[in-house]
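Hello again, I could really use a second opinion on something today. I've dropped the whole record in just underneath, so have a look.
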Amino acid sequence: LLRSMLLSMPKRVKQVLAMLVDATICFLTIWIAFWLRLGDWITLENYVVIASLLSVVLALPIFWLMGLYRVVFRHGSILVYQKISQAVVLYCSLYTLILIIFLIENIPRSIAVIQTFFLLTLVLMSRYFAQRWLGNFSKASIDSNPRISRLLIYGAGAGGRQLASILRNSKKNH
């Protein structure tokens, strides 16, 4: 039920959900990085909130500009994971640079490097599991529906697009 609801949502809603997941991952990984760096769990002090908000404010636009929210989660490939890695490395570089230049009080510069490992791991895992969960569901729903037939149109020109449009419209009418 949840999977079919997610698959039927408009693309913009799915993008916002992905951004919320990434923002949560940013907050979580900053907290983990502080814990590893300082050796103790910390409360939500001002500097932790600043580090977390800076992480989100920097990561989400980078992920957007790198196209991470344009990718459909049902279709994962090595290129998607490569793009995620590039986006996280760019994020880490800018986050570290900001921490070095502005020397924000109580935020160790090593936080950015520590966070990068966890951010990359969790973002990759979230995309992988979303792709596996949603991709397998959509494939299973196609396989289990006897009214849906598979067809490959060879060619990407105007004729191929026209044929696809005709076939799509004919299925709606029958």
Q: What stands out?
A: The radius of gyration is 21 Å. The chain has six helices and no strands. Helices lie at 2-8, 11-38, 46-65, 78-102, 110-144, 158-173. The CA atoms of residues 32 and 115 lie 7 Å apart.
